[in-house]
């Protein structure tokens, strides 16, 4: 499955204030109440009546600035330390007639039919997901393509997510959501803005502990460890992996088809033991994992690009194991699963062999180029997400 990580800041040094205005591209009029924020952080503002906005940030860095408001196309700007402090934003109005036609093509009672599938795919199935709620779920529309066996979801308003497990209210500007049932391929892209919930000191401490737990072994934790060349110190083991055809399964398929059975299901031409063996092999994947036994260093898959960024490049697959999270207590976090009682293990692959650009805070570009399977394909959902300005006490 593909899990999308969201573009976020890499902080450098001095504090910076970004100012700007938001206007209608066609009329030039100021746009009020537009949400202006840096994706996957807790830094955001709202444009005033004259379209102006102001964002105070702790440091310059690499960001994705997002400007979103109902009735306009989402605006994004990749901000770097060289970007001027004053930013003029022009929003393109959406074509209302086209929007109405698109809405008509979606199912009338979509949430009733697809809500559970969407929630499990988007929020996840972890224990944290049980304490997550999409407040305005009625704003989500669904369409199912029978030929492709693909579910499409769209929302013309930002999703408001209450994550009571980690103590965040998340405003999520969803740009794309699709799940292909035939291929088991999930893709969702969007821009989240995090806001910390406020509560009693006891509850705040509980949220702090839960955030640490979500961070340990996460993709963010891995990318930060890769950048800092601290994979082993932070309990990650990384191995080269390739997929090879399952030749035994291919051999068994025609043999199984030739077996004759009695009306009550007893095998005639082979023994019970052979039938049992055949069934076990046929349950296997069409491809088998071939994993090298020597753990890789960070330098073997990364290289410096500049003072703030490294590149990540590898062939075929990497198998990544986190050696700390194990035992029944952790398995309970993965609601409905038991396979993570051992060390959580994930496979990662680069789409089209395109390298990633990784920053010290764990953000990487382009996130759509990284495909995950295994543990991260289940754990890296919105219910476990942390903003990239999150600072862990875990070293």
Can you give a write-up of this model?
The protein is α+β, with helices and mostly antiparallel strands. It folds into four domains: 85 residues, Immunoglobulin-like (Sandwich), CATH 2.60.40.1120; 107 residues; 105 residues, no CATH class; 29 residues, no CATH class. It is 19% helix and 34% strand. Strands 9, 10, 11, 12, 13 and 14 form a six-stranded antiparallel sheet that branches. Strands 1, 3, 4, 6 and 7 form a five-stranded antiparallel sheet that branches. A five-stranded antiparallel sheet has the order 16-15-19-20-23. The N terminus is likely disordered.
Q: How many domains make up the 3D coordinates?
A: 4
User: Which stretches are low in confidence, meaning pLDDT under 50 for 5 or more residues running?
Assistant: 1-13, 327-332
Distance between the termini: 29 Å
Question: How confident is the prediction overall: mean pLDDT?
Answer: 88
Record the SSE blueprint.
Layout: E1 10-11, E2 16-24, E3 35-38, E4 44-46, E5 52-57, E6 61-68, E7 75-79, E8 86-91, H1 96-104, H2 110-122, E9 132-134, E10 140-145, E11 150-155, E12 159-163, E13 168-180, E14 185-196, H3 201-215, H4 219-227, E15 236-245, H5 247-257, H6 272-282, E16 287-291, E17 302-306, E18 309-312, E19 317-322, H7 328-331, E20 345-350, E21 356-359, E22 364-365, E23 370-374, H8 375-379
Parallel strand pairs: 2-8
Antiparallel strand pairs: 1-6, 2-5, 3-4, 3-6, 6-7, 9-12, 10-11, 11-13, 12-13, 13-14, 15-16, 15-19, 17-18, 18-21, 19-20, 20-23, 21-22
């Amino acid at each position: 499955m593909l899990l999308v990580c969201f573009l976020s800041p890499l902080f450098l040094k001095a504090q910076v204030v970004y100012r700007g205005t938001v206007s209608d591209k066609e009329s030039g009029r100021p746009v009020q109440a537009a949400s202006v924020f840096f994706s996957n952080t807790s830094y955001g503002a709202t444009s005033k009546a004259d379209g102006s906005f102001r964002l105070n940030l702790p440091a310059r860095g690499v960001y994705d600035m997002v400007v979103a408001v109902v009735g306009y196309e989402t605006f994004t700007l990749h901000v770097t330390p060289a970007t001027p402090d004053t930013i003029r934003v022009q929003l393109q109005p959406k074509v209302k007639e086209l929007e109405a036609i698109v809405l008509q093509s979606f199912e009338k009672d979509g949430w009733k039919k697809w809500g559970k599938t969407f929630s499990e795919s988007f929020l996840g199935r972890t224990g944290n997901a049980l304490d997550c709620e999409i407040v305005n779920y009625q704003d989500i529309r669904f369409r199912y393509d029978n030929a492709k066996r693909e579910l499409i979801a769209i929302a013309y308003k930002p999703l408001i997510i209450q994550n009571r497990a980690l103590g965040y209210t998340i405003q999520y500007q969803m740009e794309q959501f699709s799940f292909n049932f035939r291929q088991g391929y999930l893709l969702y892209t969007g821009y989240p803005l995090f806001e910390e919930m406020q509560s009693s000191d006891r509850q705040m401490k509980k949220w702090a502990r839960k955030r640490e737990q979500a961070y340990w072994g996460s993709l963010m934790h891995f990318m930060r460890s890769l950048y800092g060349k601290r994979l082993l110190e932070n309990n990650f083991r990384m191995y080269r992996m390739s997929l090879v055809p399952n030749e035994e399964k291919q051999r068994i398929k025609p043999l199984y088809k030739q077996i004759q059975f009695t009306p009550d299901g007893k095998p005639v031409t082979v023994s019970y033991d052979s039938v049992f063996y055949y069934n076990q092999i046929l349950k296997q994947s069409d491809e088998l994992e071939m994993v090298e036994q020597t753990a890789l260093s960070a330098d073997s898959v990364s290289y410096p690009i500049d003072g703030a960024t490294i590149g990540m490049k590898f062939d075929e697959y990497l198998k990544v194991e986190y050696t700390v999270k194990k035992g029944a207590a952790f398995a309970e976090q993965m609601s409905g699963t038991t396979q993570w009682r051992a060390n959580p293990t994930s496979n990662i692959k680069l789409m089209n062999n395109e390298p990633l650009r990784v920053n010290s805070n764990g953000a990487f570009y382009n996130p759509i180029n990284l495909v995950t399977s295994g543990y991260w394909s289940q754990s890296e959902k919105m219910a476990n997400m942390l903003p990239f300005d999150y600072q862990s006490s875990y070293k």
